[in-house]
Amino acid sequence: MSRIAIIGGTGLSELVGLEATEIEQTDSSYGATSSDIETGKLEGKTVCFLSRHGQPHRIPPHKINYRANIDALGKLGVDKIIAVNAVGSICKSMKPKHIVIPHQIVDYTYGREHTYSDSAETELQHVDFSTPYDDDLRFLLIKAAEQSNFVFSGEGVYACTQGPRLETAAEVVRLRNDGCDIVGMTGMPEAALARELGIAYASLCLVVNPAAGLSNEPITMEDIQRVLSEGIVDVLVLLKSVVAQLS
């Protein structure tokens, strides 16, 4: 039987509606996970939930132990992951609260522990990463968004930057010229690590602000938090819809 995990990002440090929860005890080979992994029932299905930035939100993007998080989920038998990401919009048609289900990613990060092939004791893998997101999971997310009549994009190129600072206007111009549509800080190496472990992985992105230089207004955390509190309601609707469809 399939076991799905949801990784919550900024704005989703707990999974509302997860019932009969218990803390899963698991030892990762790569250190401590960002938070305890909660397992419970959502829409009648068993779901694992992990808060990427910790509980409370405290771990910056470049300090997250992505290897421990994915390794621990894999050891719990998770074979599908939906990752929730808050992003900035590079594409002007993607306004705040717009939902994006990306199909591609460009990695601009550096210095992160990004692979399990890191020693003579581990198998050297050259995984195919041509399509970084699982098409079946993406299809379920797209179908759920269509049925809910949400404003969304079923494709998009996610630019993953180092953080925790936001980008400069010139950097956003570069990302746009590179063909990117949205920008976040946590999409990698999470997606690649899941691929190395053979776990299907998809991203559900919520646009929380126009990227630097694309608005006349400054980017403030107050505005981002407001959009998050409103938009995360739609994100939860999609997550529940997808979980309900899984066997």
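(the above was protein one; protein two follows)
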Amino acid sequence: MIAGLAGGGRGTAARRRPLPKAQLEKVGIGVTGACVVLVIVLVATLIVMVCGQGLATFTVDGVDPWAFLTGTVWNPHASAADGQPLMGALPMIFGSFAVTLLSCAIALPVALCLAIFMVELAPEIGRTYFQPVVELLVGIPSVVYGLVGLEVVVTWTRSWAGGTGYGIFSASIVLAVMILPTITSLTVDALAAVPDAWRNGSYALGCTKWQTIRSVVVRSAIPGILTALVLGMARAFGEALAVQMVIGNAAQIPASLFELAATLTSILTLGIGNEASGTVYANALWSLALVLLVMSLAFILIVHLIGKKEEVTDG
């Protein structure tokens, strides 16, 4: 009996013996490989799905792609004299680019100043107090930004610019605050990556602190700053809810920054839940999503090109 118990104990110990390192390595490679394949399949499925649905406007409904991209009238429920649906996406494309560029123009100087303060002027205070506050903005939901923009930015704009207060200007202010943490964090990393030896060399040549920051640190960090800017643009270009709440959602090319406008995302979120799949309007919305996807992929490509240029420069 004692021998049996001893044998059982040895069997349990054998069963609990850890796997050899070679087997653990194979398991790890298999798990990571499966995750990589899963991500590739998901991305490919997303692209194929959006392309298939978005191209239906041109292959099924017979809309001319150039007329779709350059038309200025957006009313897919109506038809022109030749029977073609009125699908002009240019107002939304214009609105998306206008809001994105203006918000980045507002956010970039502020982000650069914050990054210089946190890295060069007061690194202890900046990293301890300012950086957590900036990063806290990332966790705020988009709808909260939209509500604040609706109550504060739109009201403030209306008070001095007149009109309704809705438009590209108000949307750009809200988006600038939303993308500020992204641009700031990446700019901080870019400035911190500049070797201290370059700073010391500049000081040894008699340059002041501001001359060193301007001519050495910022200039050396330009590729990283450009990457931060492009990622901020991608974030702004794809934002939907907050922009929808403050831009006015009028599918027109505005004459000024203070008139009602629309973006690709705002029209998408307004209409996609109200149309049955396969209808002309639903296909048109999928075509807007296709344009949005192509622009997002273009932003990602630009980031990779900047990264490769930075690697060549460092090499």
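Reviewer note on protein two: DSSP finds 14 helices and two strands in the chain.
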